## 1
Amino acid sequence: MKGKYLSQTMSTPSLSRRNFLKTTATFAAASSLPGTCSLFAAETGYGGKTLPFGVQLWTVSKAFATDPEGTLAQLAGLGFKGVEFYTAFPGGRDAKTMRSILDRNGLKAVGYHIHGLNTMNDEDLKKTIETNQIIGNTRLGVSFLAPGGKFVPTARTTTATRKQWEDVADTFSALATKLKPHGMETYYHCHPVDFARIDGETTWDIFFNRASKDVFMQIDLGHMGTAGVDQVAEMKKFPRRAKTVHVKPANGGDGRLVGDPNDGNLAKWPAIFAACEDKNIGGTEWYILEYDGGNMEQVVGTAARLKEWGKM
């Protein structure tokens, strides 16, 4: 997840018959892409429908901003079971309205990305908790950190110190303690910059070695792959803390999809899924599809691939 959060001000009617037919046609086309197998003959080795799939709404931010009702209906129609928010509800909709839209489509709120740790301060936290209680979400995450300097999502170096990262980890631990009485948890979402090294150790490792085990990690499989990090090794290093996992291709900024021949993670997907679904390794509860700057066509195409793999 990257970039500035959108200010959403428009509302349009729910999914139209034309959009539904368009989505169905796109899905059918995606299922016949070169190199794919029939949707009726799932490939082997991917582990089956063990965990539900959701979508990070940043992936379809433009569609969600202009037609939240229709967008959520499309996602549900494709077989997704939940959505992760990036804080703003479009068109000034309140939490009760958003909850009703989710309920109508059989979707769960499975996460809520905060723009930065500063928005988790005591003054704002009460409102954030109340909002998420209404929409039924129990997971509050921070989408990026920038101790020691400006956040650059694709950077491989950092100006931060070990002490700064340890201080941030302590802040997360305190936040987890505050959330626990409300039945809520907190998590941190990774970018390639989180695997820059300080004295030979990645900032990701510094953070999670320091933070309370009540702070879970939201592994972004694409960002880890882009950073050259072994996703399975990271799960084994911090077992049972990968409760929600972002599914995307490594080095995928050119528009490639999960499962494309050069998606950067293709050879690893069976091992990654197996590690996530092992309660003693990943302990994952939700897969969450995300494309930075994505669109509904990418979601449709990836849903087709995941169904071929027997994951949805």
Note: The chain has one domain: 17-308.
## 2
Amino acid sequence: MLLHGCDMDRLTEMEAFATVVDQGGFTDAARKMGMSKSAISKHVSSLEARLGARLLNRTTRRVSPTEIGLVYYDRARRVLNDAGEADSIVTAMQAAPSGLLRMSVVTDFGVALLSPVLDEFLAQYPEISVNMVLKNRYVELISEGFDLAIRVGELEDSSLRARRICESTQRLIAAPSYFEQHGRPTRIDELTEHRLLHYSNQSSANVWKIIAPSGEERQVRGTGWLTVNDGQSLLNAAIKGLGIAYLPSYLYHKAMAQGLVEDVIPDLPRSTLGIHAVYPPGRYTQPKVRSFIDFLVAKFADKGPDCW
């Protein structure tokens, strides 16, 4: 919305009146605003005339708001504060990103994909310092003091804002030595007859959601032959032939390329895990947060469909 001259005059009148109340008089208000005392008085008189109400009690010693003036002051101060905040936001958004960026990152993704690119980000933004906390649980961003979090998989319903960084396919994988000893399942239904390797940090750690050839989502429940809270440890166990793991591609792709693990049921459609940056709600995103998310989106856009 465009501000016409009368709108700008109205804001000036409002600011003059509020400053008189804040300072307790016209002389100090004039000094605060860098205007003459007569100019301040003229703005306040014009405001009272336009509203048709007396906003100030004036005596030779003291100036104080009337009852209706107090009501108007409260609302006027809010409007002026909002205007000042709007100016500050624009200024901050144009400033170079700086300060401490504290983020929570899922351990496996942080180690495998985020740590190797942090040097590029820090080189681009030397005024930002990073504190990356690797956790396999969902942190409470605001109460625990984080600026953002990187989360893998389905997002919980929340008031947080989210931006998709990339995605990763998920596969059932096992070592050739496992198949030699225990055979290879050919259908989803056969998985429960095998040794399964599970994440313990997930609320449904013993349940795998797998897409069947028909496109239907199937749930596989089974007691874990080995259960740990770290994806790399699960991959290591699979490589050793201890069982079947269900892992994202950014963990297993190197091992698969080297022939250390194989796709358990190759005909199954690939399940996809979304990887998102989540950050506190609000109209204003801090430059350090915005610059880091923009960096990740651009960085992983060059990596192909599986983030690597």
Note: The longest strand covers residues 161-174.
## 3
Amino acid sequence: MEMIPNRQVAAEMLADRLEHYKGQKGVVLAIPRGGVPVAAPIAQRLSMPLDVIVSKKIGHPANPEFAIGAVSLEDVEVDKRADVPAAYIQAEVERLKESLCQQYRLFMGNRQPVDLRDRIVIIVDDGIATGKTLLSTVNMARNKQPRKIIVAVPVAPLTAIQQFEAIVDEVVYLLAPPMFQAVGQFYEEFEQVSDAEVIHLLRQRYDSQV
């Protein structure tokens, strides 16, 4: 079975395939936490700002694990088919947005999110499992009217690759194995990424731009 050594090697390999975007008006958006160590070297290689996009799912009141929508700092997505009271949705959105604001401040300090309008947006994660988080991220990014949306991931099931190829401008990936169970099974090293590591990588990239 083909394996990826670690997130850092994956980042360099993806950056090779994205090199032609270097110097263009773009932004690399990482899905924390695991996406940040992959996104940071890509942003550096392409001379683009690095930002995180934080989002949380809205769980069904009868089954919190079942997602009926998603919330980011600025956007809300709700499945129209979900027969759920509006008051529940509103309360969950307010609760989740407060949590997301705290998370974004933890990672980015007082910096404002990068304006995505008319930019090439490269959304990066360390892999795709169900694809639900990435799908909501793509939809939320699209609302900001970017010039182009690219998804860059080291590994994903072929079905997910095909799903995203149908809705974004480009999908860049390293592996699309047929027997897919979890992202971590295709990495030789797949350690948990801490908040401290995320903060360090984001600040390092920001400081190099200032």
Note: Helices lie at 7-18, 36-46, 86-108, 132-142, 158-165, 195-209.
## 4
Amino acid sequence: MFTGIVQDIGSVVSLSKIGNAAKIAIRTQMDLSAVHIGDSIACNGVCLTIESMEGAILHFHAMEETLSRSNLGLSHGGSPINLEPALRMGDPLGGHLVSGHIDCTAPIIAIGRKGDDRVLDIALPPALRELVIMKGSIAINGVSLTISRLERDSFGVNIIPHTWSHTNLAALKTGDVVNLEADPVGRYILRHLQLKEQSDGDSHATMEHLAQAGFL
């Protein structure tokens, strides 16, 4: 598990396709004294396992599923990558619980400003509509953010200056594709309600009731 609090903006050294999979090497400035081969690192929000280490360069294997669901396959030499080591027992939960399992990608619709903050407008894929709510949490390229605007086909987030300057969100342009992971808690609630609807049509907690309450 992760928290969506990025620790470093790494840089892709190389990405080599192997069939439908890929080997990715990323250079980091993180303190690696407590990081070992086999540990999990969130790379743009994608949970990857360290296969080997060469000084400050971490090597990962990305499966076909990972490449098809995330923007890692679009990376190239020099691409900035948000990095976060796995959450350890006792660490502060500064953002929200992030699993590192990307739901989908979506393009940036617009980038604006509101005072000192940046505002990102992002397309909302149909598969994610039931998993996002106003003021709810969402991970964008592995960054824990709060939804400040929600429409049927898009949503918006406001980003404070510190987050903007300490993540790769500052490198985004309109049309760029970002990784999205909805709050895992919502996924479990949705699944529970779907099963309840299938097994008990008279359930007190139905998808219709949840929508009427403003959660969908």
Note: The radius of gyration is 18 Å.
